[in-house]
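Lecture notes, structural biology module. Today: joint structure prediction for complexes of two components.
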Amino acid sequence: MATTDTGNETFANSHVLDPAASTASQEQINEEISALHGAYRDSVAAGGEEETQPRIDFAPYRSSLLRHPTKSLHHADPETIELHSPAFGQRDVHVLESDLTIQHNGEPIGERIVVTGRVLDGDGRPVRNQLIEVWQANAAGRYVHKRDQHPAPIDPNFTGVGRAITGENGEYTFTTIKPAPYPWKNHHNAWRPAHIHFSLFGTDFTQRMITQMYFPGDPLFSLDPIYQSIQDQKARDRLVAVYDHSVTSHEWATGYRWDIVLTGSNRTWMEDEEGDH
Amino acid sequence: MAQAPELKLVPTPGQTVGPFFGYALPFEKGGELLHPGHPRAVRLYGDVTDGNGDPIPDALLEIWQADEDGNVPAETGSLVRDGYTFTGWGRVPVDNLGRYTFTTVNPGPSEPGKAPFILLTVFARGLMNRLFTRIYLPEDAKALAADPLLSSLDDAARDSLIATREADGSLRFDVRLQGEGETAFLQYPRLS
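The predicted structure, tokenised, for the full assembly:
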């Protein structure tokens, strides 16, 4: 587990201040998002392809301006190492690491929640015995991170980092505290919708992905250039968990369900092809 | 090669790693796939820069590679390094000047006659989705010339994927997300 003592962390690597950040208003950002989404909808209406992933070149997210490749991605046929993933197991992760509410002496402040779901690949097969990592802000919208200096309290009983190994059906469960929205410096009065970061591995390393899970009905969705960097509403909806009362437990925690689909494995069909010789 | 089969499910979108991963994702000895004192240890390092050529101080890199014999590692324990088990996978944040360092071995070719490479994944604040690339070892000129990916690229893109071997045996590989010398990033079949 990463260091949890906020007093002696060595944050050599993190910066919030962003020279690319502008002083644009929320209205300007909204207009930029709206123009890009409008052009996308026109393109789909004219028979263009539907997008399922975020755009890496998305100017309303100011930090992306100098950090996206300008050349298109080059097609590669995967070779052996790319058809496999590193192995993780209970040697790497203790079962208690999936409960973010028991890492300190006291109970964290906030709304206790359970987030559960399955990790599947693009063929619908469960991704078993793989590492899944989460991190998040606390119930006040503050990260345990030296560079997050906005005036909201740190909770001494909440670090906001969890890990798990997926089960036989690709299932995972985290117990945590519902994170709050927090301000950031993309533009004036910018606020991120509440979210939990997820890091995932598949059976092939080319399925590796990091994403963010959001909560249903967040009023900040339409204002957030990170969420809106995904052009298609259907794709954006895939990042939003559903409230599931069957996950909620009596007098203990409310429950959310969120399934994650990775891209397709190339191992099976490529190996089958080799076997055809 | 045959056409990759269609996916049954639509993949979940990626999102940026954001600025605040520093207390969550890095772990002790994350970049030490091998103990730095090991006689066959190789330093793999470089700088991560943006479209202005400025260092990116909040990127996170992962490598995944075969062992020296080209075998795909299948051992668990990357997150709790014992100093002896080669798991083939590592993760490091860059430093304040955008520099990353791994300690690893030269991978063998994963298939006979193929050019050996290390797979690299880049995450960063400002980067909406992860990027993949390959770090080719520079030595086997014949295998490099025959490599299907490298052969499909123009000279600049090709050169961006081949590491430099330094006098002390280190491998130098810079990652330029944009602009002059932009690194060639890859996409694989079955993304959608």
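Point to remember: The longest helix of chain B spans residues 141-146.
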